[in-house]
Structures are given as C-alpha cells and as structure tokens.
Amino acid sequence: MHSVDRPYSPSQTPTKPRLLDHVREVLRRRHYSLRTEQSYVDWIKRFILFHCKRHPAQMGKAEVTVFLTHLAVRRDVAASTQNQALSAILFLYRHVLEQELEWVEGFERPKRPARLPVVLTAAEARAVLGQLEGAKWLMGCLLYGAGLRLMECLRLRVKDVDFGYGQILVRDGKGVKDRVTMLPATLVEPLKVHLERVRALHRRDLEAGYGEVYLPHALERKYPRAPREWPWQYVFPARKLSTDPRSGAVRRHHLDEDVLQRAIKEAARNADVRKPVSCHAFRHSFATHLLENGYDIRTVQELLGAFGRLDDDDLHPRHEQGGSRGEKPARWRCFRRAPEGANDGRRHGLERCAELRYAPARPAGSCR
User: Fold this and answer.
1) Where do the H-state alpha helices sit in the chain?
2) What is the pLDDT of residues 112-121, one digit of tens each?
3) Confidence (pLDDT) at 300
4) Superfamily for 116-368?
C-alpha cells in the first residue's frame, strides 16, 4: 500500500504484506483502537497456530467451530472471551481475506450470563476513597463523582475539563460517542492544584525537547503545533516518557490503567470493604445512587453515555426503583438537586448536580 504523503507511481509494484501485517493495516484503516488491534491479531495468531499454521483461506466453518469448542471445553474460557475470539476470526474472513461466508449468518454466538454488578454504599465509597492519595484520589473521585469509565478518566485532556460550567467533556467514549457529565464541586480546587503541577512537568518536557502528546485521527498533521500545546495534554500523565508502539515517537502518555486498578484494590483491602471492588464499581454506584436520590432514568443515561439503554448492568436491579421496596433511603444524600426552573443549555437540559458529599473535604495542597 503506497503512502498518502508521497505521489504514487504506476511503475511501483507494492509487495504483498504478510497476513498479520495486512490485518493490522485493515484495522488501522477502519480506525480500530490499539487495544482491539492487539487483541484481534493475537486471536488470529492463536487460530492459525491451533490448526498447525494452515492459512485461514484454506479453512472454514468446521475449523472455526473446532477452535471455539476447544476454547470453551479445554480452556474453559468465559462466553465473552469466546465471543471476542469469534469476532476476530470473522473480521479476518470478512474484511481481510474478503471471503463471502454463507455460514456466518447462522453462526450462534455464546450468550453471556447475567451478572449482578457490584454497588458500594456511600459509606463504603467514602472509606475506599479515603485510602487513596494524590492523583489516585482525584481519579477515584472522578470515577464515582462523574460516572467515568477507567479509560475515559485516564484519557482526559486539559481542554475537556470545564471549570466555568462545572462539567467534563468525554471525547470518544464507548461506541465513539461524546458526552457531557458533571465535575464534582469538591474536586475543583484539588484538580486546579494538580493541573498546575502537570503544567510544570509539561514545561520541563518542552525544555528537554519533548512535550508532545498523542493525537488521534491525523490531527497532528491538521494542527502541527497541537501536540506540544497545553490544552491537549493529558490530565493524568505518566511519570516517564514512552515510545509510541505505532509511530515510534517518544512522548509522555497518560497514566497506565494498572496503576489505578492496583491502588483501588489495595484501598478496598485497607478499608476492610469485603466486596470485590474495581474501578467500574464506582460507575455502578454513581448510577445507582443518582436513581435512589430521585433523578430520572433519562438523566442518568445521558450522564453515563448509555443512550437508549443503561450500559452493561450499570444498575443493580433492586435499585432501579429506589430500593428493595421502592423507597428512597434517607442515607443516600450524595447529590443536591438544582433549584426548580433552573435551565442550563450547555448541559443539554440535564439537571445540575451542584455539590457532591461523597468524599471527605481535603485542602487544595493535599492533592499531590
């Protein structure tokens, strides 16, 4: 495939790429994420090795069925893992090999079992967050106070935090959708102090000849100066510079997700919370506590970015009507309603949740 930055000459004969390299090219051309690319390439490689390195063009439904049966019976993988493997293989045949597969339509996908989400009480959420410090405390509070997913929090950029309107703009969330959610009032000052420290780090990177950040979808060519500008920097940058796996550029990426995941697991143990607490449990709790405080389900859906439905069991069934008997318990007072008649067009009609009481107040200088 010829480069778009260089005129193509008909005399050039492009060499046929290797299969896995071709898979990567197609995935990038269709704007799949790096994580999806790595996962699909890995499953396709496993599929080929399982059948003794036979080329996928020589295989079909029978080989795919044998491989998926092996995963379910021998490897005892979950239904979601089996579905991921099937999606990777179907992508290979449909979009890379471009084969018409009549058997695809009748191929039955494994059904994911219904699982109840983990929902923390207000006291449990306060206890876990109270065990965190610095940037990890800020990130944990944003997961619970704004209903962010883990990667949405880590990928926040400076320009997407709107202190004036008290809101956060989530860009390219799940399903490549943008949305607006609330910025907890108790986090405004600690977040400003944190950003001043991040800006000082960015200045040092610029002085050292670095300071660039990753921009998606060729924005770097459209806005050549943007990668070094402050508004495009990550709110939670990594401590060390790293090499981009695709371009090879040395940049400061956002914090690795394992850092926050391990911190929350350790905080839950230290707080003696015996539920299996994860980063996503704060998102479940955010949605459930809003409903228990009387917010309508449409408002919660828009804050979660679950347009048309609630996202992947974000609510516990007994909390959908405010409790086991439909009441709204008095102990859930995490959010304060906006005055009647208040209207904020920038929030697309969402009710203003002006103040959060879920975490103990901390002085601005304590967020390091």
Assistant:
1) 19-29, 34-50, 61-73, 79-91, 122-129, 134-146, 150-154, 188-207, 219-222, 257-270, 279-292, 297-304
2) 777 788 999 9
3) 85
4) Intergrase catalytic core (1.10.443.10)
Residues 6+ apart with CB under 8 A from 113: 79
The helix (run of H) or strand (run of E) holding residue 242 is: strand 242-243
Cα torsion angle, 19, 22, 27, 33, sign:
positive
Half-sphere exposure (CA, 13 Å, Cβ side) for 349?
5
Q: Go through 132-159 and write b for each residue having 16 or more CB atoms within 10 A of its CB, e for each that does not.
A: beebbbbbbbbbbbbbbbbbbbbbbbbe
pLDDT in tens, 195-250: 999 999 999 999 999 999 998 877 888 888 999 999 999 999 999 999 988 788 89
Single-letter amino acid, residue 181: T
* Inter-residue contact 353 to 146 (CB < 8 Å): no
CATH 1.10.3570.10 corresponds to the domain 19-104: no
| pLDDT tens-digit map of 328-342 | 333 233 333 333 443
Lookup: tokens for 252: 């400061």
Collect all residues with Cβ–Cβ distance below 8 Å to 308 and sequence separation of at least 6: 301
- Distance between CA 298 and CA 305 in Å, rounded? 10
Instruction: State the Cα–Cα distance between residues 225 and 104, nearest whole angstrom.
Output: 46
- Max CA distance (Å), the chain: 76
Per-domain boundaries in the chain: 19-104, 116-368
